[in-house]
Write a structure and sequence with these properties.
Helix content is 37%, strand content 16%. The strands form four sheets. A seven-stranded mixed β-sheet has the order 3-9-8-7-6-4-5, sandwiched between helices. A four-stranded antiparallel β-sheet has the order 12-13-15-14. The C terminus is likely disordered.
């Protein structure tokens, strides 16, 4: 989101002094903040933009992001070939729609739907949209049930932890649902089942659990929460669904811990979202939403649109959507299969464990999450230092590494940590180089060779 409060005269004065780009093949200065009056040679424009984007970080050295930064050349080719296809045009591009349906079926089976003929799902721009759509359906179902019973339906609430992504807070605010946020603690970074039980009531539309939190990569105790909600259903008749936010773990856990029950094998798990553009190994943006049963997506929320020659059902917050990433997801599934995903996941987990071990062995860091479930390692200083993790983050940036330092959510905000996401291209050799650079940067800070930033721990934020 970009906004400006600068008046136009000041903007033009700034542009006159600093805001015009020059290029050896361009005869005129190029305005930055106004529409150019004339056309420009495409090669010149390309070079101008290309040169400016060189200031961005190297995606391969970006250890902050969960997002995929590399795909096979054949996948890149398919993406380019289909960039111009709008997915919503089902009549014009029916095969893309067929491919989406295949992927929804594949994921529903991967997540162990109990009835192979009774589920429903959709692709989304990312997990944020998938979370919004999943929770909106649960709100609608709760309201309709309350209306059917002649009960008040004006005070819905949703229960989730302080370890969730901001998308959960957005849903509560945007769709007028009371958020009942269970705080984390300085020594515990996920929610407890007993705390969930204290917050739920007859107005609870759903309980949110996270498989792989943005902050630490840990798992909420989904099975224990499921068991408590089952007990509540038997004893008090409250049937409260669980939505599992598996944005990070949806393409990890089925291959790394297939026996771990977190999905539709648990009775109260009614919907699951995951991100194709994270460990689904697809570029942004792509998400997936799967409902346990067809009837969990209310018919009233589906729109049947007569658009460009065909009537089609749609359940999205937006209308247009690119086709390329859906096709790229299908490429990965067909190309890698379970065997390929399992091999890639195993390598990432091995490299993440190696990173955690080296950090711990250095005695300079305390490892919080050692990649127990997903290839994410979080850590902090082993003892107090005269500088901060923010200073260390800035220092290793000199070597090209992008590593976030940030404070944890309320009730643990005095705890500052760093996070490394070990993706497919972060090899064991790169892990060793990174740890060496991290230790060298810490030694340099100790000698006072650079001025520390004096940043407050409250200023940092994780990168999703």
């Amino acid at each position: 989101m970009v906004s400006s409060k600068v008046d136009i005269n000041k903007l033009r004065e700034s542009e006159r002094k600093f805001g015009k780009s020059h290029h050896r093949y361009s005869k005129e200065e190029v305005p930055k903040y106004r529409f150019p009056e004339k056309t420009m040679d495409s090669r010149t424009v390309y070079q101008l933009i290309h040169d400016e984007l060189n200031l961005d970080g190297n995606p391969d050295l970006n250890l902050a992001t969960f997002v995929t930064t590399w795909m096979d050349p054949e996948a890149d080719k398919l993406i380019i070939e289909n960039l111009h296809k709008n997915f919503i045009d089902h009549f014009e591009y029916p095969q893309v729609n067929n491919i989406e349906e295949r992927i929804v079926n594949i994921l529903a089976n991967l997540f162990n739907v109990p009835d192979k003929s009774d589920f429903i799902g959709t692709s989304t721009i990312g997990s944020s949209e998938a979370i919004m759509l999943g929770l909106l359906a649960h709100k609608w179902n709760w309201r309709q049930e309350r209306i059917r019973k002649g009960l008040p339906h004006d005070k819905p609430n949703i229960v989730f932890g302080g370890d969730t992504h901001v998308s959960w807070d957005k849903f509560a605010r945007y769709f007028d649902v009371e958020p009942r946020i269970i705080p984390i603690a300085k020594d515990r970074f996920t929610i407890k089942p007993e705390d969930v039980l204290k917050e739920v009531d007859e107005n609870t539309i759903a309980v949110g659990v996270v498989l792989g939190t943005t902050f630490t990569g840990e798992f909420d105790p989904v099975q224990e929460i499921n068991d408590l909600l089952l007990k509540l259903k038997r004893e008090k008749g409250l049937d409260i669904p669980i939505h599992v936010d598996a944005a990070s773990a949806g393409f990890i856990t089925p291959f790394f811990e297939p026996g771990f029950e977190w999905d539709f094998r648990l009775e109260q798990v009614s919907s699951i979202n995951t991100s194709g553009h994270k460990f689904g190994l697809v570029y942004p943006g792509l998400g997936w939403l799967i409902f346990r049963h067809h009837n969990l997506l209310p018919e009233e929320l589906k729109f049947y649109v007569n658009y460009l020659g065909d009537e089609m059902p749609t359940y999205t917050l937006n209308f247009s959507e690119g086709s390329s990433m859906i096709i790229a997801q299908y490429f990965n599934i067909m190309h890698l299969g379970k065997e390929g995903y399992r091999q890639i996941v195993d390598r990432m987990m091995e490299n993440a464990s190696h990173l955690a071990a080296r950090l711990q062995e250095s005695k300079e860091f305390h490892v919080i999450n050692d990649a127990k479930h997903i290839p994410v390692v979080t850590f902090r200083f082993a003892k107090d230092e005269d500088f901060t993790l923010f200073d260390l983050s800035y220092r290793v940036r000199e070597r090209g590494w992008i590593v976030p330092a940030y404070s944890l959510p309320p009730h643990a905000e005095e705890v500052t940590i760093m996070r490394v996401v070990v993706r497919e291209n972060f090899t064991r050799n790169l892990v060793d180089i990174f740890v060496d650079d991290l230790l060298n940067a810490k030694r340099a800070l100790k000698t006072g060779s650079i001025k520390t930033s004096q940043r407050s721990a409250r200023e940092g934020h994780p990168v999703s």
